[in-house]
Amino acid sequence: MEPRLLARLLAAAALLSAPLALAGPCPSGVAYPGNEGWPSQVEATQTAKAKEIAALEDYAFTRTGKDAERKGIRTDGVVIVKGGTLIYEKYGPGFTASNKHLSWSVAKSFSSALIGTSVQRNALALDDSICTYLTEYSGDVCRIKVRDNLTFATGLAWQEEYEGKQYQVSSVISMLFGVGHADQLKHVLSTKFAHDPGTQWKYSTGDAELLSAVAKRALAKQLPGEEFPFWKVMFDPMGMSVAFEEDVKGTPLGGSMVYATPREFAKFGYLFLHDGCWDGQRLLPEGWVKDSTTPSNVFLTTAPKTEDALSGYMWWLNQPWPQQQKEKPWADVPADAFAALGHWGQRIYVIPSLDLVVVRTGDDRESGKGLDSNTFLKLAMAVAQ
Are residues 201 and 302 in contact, defined by beta-carbon separation less than 8 angstroms? Predict the structure, then answer.
């Protein structure tokens, strides 16, 4: 038999035999966009909400002068989806609805979701050692559980530094662009331990990339011969043609390197708005969204006070932090809001109580000059209400 055909038959058999976690019905009466895109009421909103739209654009789209001068808030795109309908969309210079945008750390929330998809398919369990799937590794790193990884608690002594830092100082620059770029999984797992796994929260692009590697290996066991299992189990069902970069060893760069259009990012937010369901198909386990948007115990007890928003499963939450006597970070936004957040101002905001998803892509490279989430969301909510 021709090898490719055999691989496809094996993959089909695996899909049929794989035990799926089907508990929990999907919400009924929810409108989902087809592969052609969102139903649109953009023109009607422009007429009905002209004043509110002007206020939003006067804040979010303010780049002025020559591009090299980098003045103003440099928004590349904004998409607002209310009740399953696209009600507002605008792009900055050089961008259109069809341009894919780099996610930066929004990718971390994608990696978290792919673990959820793996749990839904019974491909892994959160209390498994990462070495169950990364079988070429042994020893100390096998103390790390998938759950530790999911909550930024691997215990690895990762240095998360960005612009202005040499790769010898920054673990993430070294991994993406320096000595570790060719085998990024090895680079992450060569990091020494600073704490026992599960005992200390520490933000880490390395943790997220490790998480996406675990998800890929777990899904590959169920889908032999499937080169890109993420598409089979999540992106294809949602009609998302994302670009998910990998290094030369095939490790997905799940900490920072996902590319999608703002409309596609909105689809991802919409999946989480509706309990991990897409058009009647449960892609995430029942309760996964709630767990993802509940602050982890390790965050609440060990994260530094300098963190602005609480962290769940690599999502960021608009909730108060009693242990640090901090109010919710976006004061004028409902407390049930949560977000995927990325470098230079990449944002997917989900506000369940308003049936709302807001996406913003941008280029906020200058510290202190970027988008303020509370101000932006107040203006976006005024357009949507």
Answer: yes
334 pLDDT above the threshold of 50:
yes
Q: Which residue from 176, 157, 194 is spatially nearest to 254, judged by alpha carbons?
A: 176
Tokens matching residue 204: 């880490």
Under DSSP, the state recorded for 94 is: T
Higher pLDDT pick, 66 / 335:
335
The whole-angstrom separation of Cα 343 and Cα 186 is 24
Share of the chain above pLDDT 70, in %: 90
Is there a contact between 158 and 179 (Cβ–Cβ < 8 Å)?
no
> Where does the pLDDT of residue 172 fall: very low under 50, low under 70, confident under 90, or very high at 90 and above?
confident
Which residues does 47 contact at the CB level (< 8 Å), separation at least 6? none
Angle 198-201-203 from CA coordinates, rounded to 5°: 130
* Tokens 């993406």 belong to residue: 176
The DSSP bridge pattern shows strands 75-82 and 356-362 to be: antiparallel
Provide the β-strand partners of residue 71.
64
Cα–Cα distance list, 94 to 98, 101, 261, 321 (Å) = 11, 11, 13, 40
Task: Look at residue 370 in the predicted model and tell me its pLDDT.
Answer: 84
Specify the amino acid at residue 104.
W
The pair of structure tokens assigned to 292 is 């993802």
**Average per-residue pLDDT in the chain?**
89
